[in-house]
Amino acid sequence: MAANEVPPELVTLVEKMQTEYRDSEYDIAVALAEAHGPLTVEELADETGYTERTIKKRVGTLEEALRGDPLIDVDDDGGAELHPRLAEALREASA
Known about the structure:
By secondary structure, the protein is mainly alpha-helical. The protein contains 5 helices and 2 strands.
């Protein structure tokens, strides 16, 4: 596998996210992927159009579904960042 190739298990995870996750969860994940770095709750709300309350709830759900680190890193204030490989898989899937 090439260094920048997305592992098949992440491709499968993104397919699952597209079909089984709430639209808001998937939209937040895509926004995080496109950001190429961490976003605050406020920034995610601006990017997605969802309320800060929804962002906080859905980031928590994503963290739980992705089993936290290493796929998603959420700080104490609710800001989040995806693992670079997961972000790449999401960008490829949403292109």
